[in-house]
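Hey L., structure's done. Input below.
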Amino acid sequence: MDNIILAGSGGCMREIFWQLQEQRKKQEGFHVLGYVDCVRPENEVGISVGGEEIAYLGDDDYLLAVKETVNVAICVGSPVLRRKLAKKYARNPNVCFPNLILGNTAVCADVRMGEGCIISMDARISTNVIIGNFVFMNTGSMVCHDGRIGDFVTLSPDVKLAGGVHVASGADIGIGSKVIQGIHIGENVVTGAGSVIIRDVEADSRVAGVPVRDIMHV
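Output:
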């Protein structure tokens, strides 16, 4: 079982740690060495999830200083922060970013995926899908056939993308959003919870509603 360090200390990291705990019950997945974060824990030891302690290893400098190869998962939901951390940690050539394919997922054998992706419990990725780097698919999210997902995209829990949907780099798709077939969502788009997207969305937009409407253009 390979070792891994988690980056982040919020709810996203704790949920991913829990999913790794579930995998270990089946003798699968990674063993977590600890986590790094710029905020030190109050008890100076770590964080407890499910009665198991996750050791605090230090801030980002810990990863920048490692001399041996180490696996790292960037466990933050924000595409902006995930991009920033990936760029920072990549300065150390000893840091590797494996893909985490967590419990009860289904990923078609012809899916092409970059590095540093996290595919959470109950996620589904269908045939002829291309996934970029550092994509985070939260629990229950789905990408149907011929989808294209850019780097640093976040699909929140229960997001459903129909066939042929393209989501450009840095987009943050809100919980429970649904996108009909063939739609293009531009870079850095943010969608509100429960959005229904039936038209293309321009880059840097914020949209919400059923169907969606612009609530702010960044």
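The two ends are 44 Å apart (CA to CA). Residues 3-97 form a domain with the Rossmann fold fold (CATH 3.40.50.20).

-- N.
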